[in-house]
Amino acid sequence: MDLLLFGIPALVAIIGAIAMLLSRNAVHSALYLLLNFAAIAVLYLLLQAPFLFATQLIVYAGAIIVLFLFVVMLLGAERDEETTHANPWQNRGAFVGGILLLVELCMLYVRNPGTIPVSVDMNNGFAAPAEVAKALFTTHLLPFEIASFVLLTALIGVVVLHQRRS
Amino acid sequence: MVSTLMYVALSAFLFVIGVLGVTLRKSALMVFMSVELMLNAANLALVAFANQWKSVDAQIMVFFVITIAAAEVAVGLALLVMIFRRKKTTDIDLMNTLRG
């Protein structure tokens, strides 16, 4: 049952990611990315992170995807892109590099089996939203304030970038 | 019982797809989406580890990653729109100068 609950969103996430990679139309890619984000949100729920589940849906699946779709349609970039790179070896190199990276990441965990215990106890709510808020506003208060400053900086930066120069 | 290892393996797989997206696709928009995919893969691994150790700190980390990702997307897409206005393209092979 647990395996099924994990397997379905995992499969959806992988399908969404691959379809995003292969889709030639940028609007389709953004929608497949939305599918991937939603599947990952379900996995957060399985990992007992209800607060991050909501944040993922609101910020990623909501705000960021809408921003992407808006820019894709604003730029008219939804038409097909060319597939040939300026460097003819880039496609083959990317596949070889990707496979090497995947093998390396897997080897890290295969070679050090002791570092990740393989059974997870799933029956306590250590990350209820109240607990997250408590940690966020006590231990991690300074990073929280810095994050708000970063968001303000991004806001001002975007406004300055799109100012009309007279 | 699903092990943390499986979540981490899924995270690694999604990360590699993101890397492939950055290297294979030519549209700057697609590169951006692939970067978001990689950030999500890293977040998934962090949440899996948070569940493993029953510690909320890694989830706080994910919260900050999401915040920074939102700021990054806003600024990045604004830059992209500016570049598109000047060059009339989103092809990253044609964005090869620092001056406009």
Explain what you see.
The complex is a heterodimer of chains A (166) and B (100). By secondary structure, chain A is mainly alpha-helical. Chain A has a domain of 79 residues: Four Helix Bundle (Hemerythrin (Met), subunit A) (Up-down Bundle), CATH 1.20.120.1200. Chain A contains 6 helices and no strands. In chain A, helix 1 runs antiparallel to helix 2 and helix 2 runs antiparallel to helix 3. The radius of gyration of chain A is 21 Å and the shape is globular. Chain B is an all-alpha fold. Chain B has a single domain, classed as Helix Hairpins (Orthogonal Bundle). In chain B, 78% of the residues lie in helices and 0% in strands. Chain B has 3 helices and no strands. The radius of gyration of chain B is 17 Å and the shape is elongated. At the A-B interface, helix 1, helix 2, helix 3, helix 4 and helix 5 of A face helix 1, helix 2 and helix 3 of B.
Task: Chart the SSEs and their pairings.
The complex is a heterodimer of chains A (166) and B (100).
Chain A: H1 2-22, H2 26-46, H3 50-75, H4 90-111, H5 129-137, H6 141-161
Helix pairs in contact in A: 1-2, 2-3
Chain B: H1 4-24, H2 28-53, H3 57-87
